[in-house]
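ARCHIVE ENTRY
Sequence with per-residue tokens
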Amino acid sequence: MKTFASRVIHWQQRHGRSALPWQASRDPYRIWLSEIMLQQTQVATVVPYFERFVARFPDLATLAAAHEDEVLALWSGLGYYSRARNLHAAARAVAERYDGRFPAAPAAMEQLPGIGRSTAAAIAALAFGQRCAILDGNVKRVLARHGGIDGWPGDRKVESALWQLAESRLPGNAIEAYTQGMMDLGALVCTRGRPACNACPVNADCTAHNQGRTAELPTPRPRKTLPERQVQMLLLLDRGELMLEKRPARGIWGGLWSLPELPSDSDPAALCRDRYGFVAQSQHALPRLSHSFTHFRLHIQPVQMRLAPRLTTSPDQIWLPPADALNAALPAPVRKLVTQLENA
């Protein structure tokens, strides 16, 4: 039987993905950008974001020179916004430390914000042809099933075993095709639900396939009940303009423009008066909506309020017509609320 790697390479060359927009060259900037966008996000979602992003920031120097607000605005809706902030910070670090040339060494890449071991290895393999093992979520699933490795892959011991397996299966050549093949195999064939085992090039010696354990492996994350939080969000309107607030750099939606928040049992009119010095002339509640994060579920009660003409504006606030506000870097549920307001 051919080696595991040779079967993956042969399959990728015949059946793998080869027309994705970041595969047109070995430009490390484009490959790095795609790897960051693809973290916890599916390819179909990433492609239009990637194309818009490189149209505005075609190279690392352009990204490094940009204002963070513009970077976040182009990322708006893609989620996990720390990725965008780290991407921007890493571009600036490369411009300062490496004269704008993306480093080829994985160890150097791992010193940049937002780049871990697997991401560095993927960039090194795909952009520079270096013999490095990757271990993203799709690859973990392929290796756990093929190698029959029990346990949740997020556990340190299980992850260590998967890294050892990933290193042991690297080919002597064609590392680019192998790396892409492992990603494609997990995304297209060895899927989480209903894997297409009959189409898999390594099914003959796959432990999970041969033992009927594909539904068991990899072992799911231990289930936890998501905490639930309640909050009010205020759509403050003055003479046709909506107020947005800049969120702190750290934490949920860090650095994005959002709506004022207050506890679910607080009085919106009192908050307007006490926090901002605004006088509310009218208010009414809008339909509730919910938004799920990795660690909790947020239930939002929107409240639309019309204000008496304001006298001042704080530096961390902007006032925009709803249509213009949609061009700002907004969290997904805030964008939904502003869209509804603009269409009303």
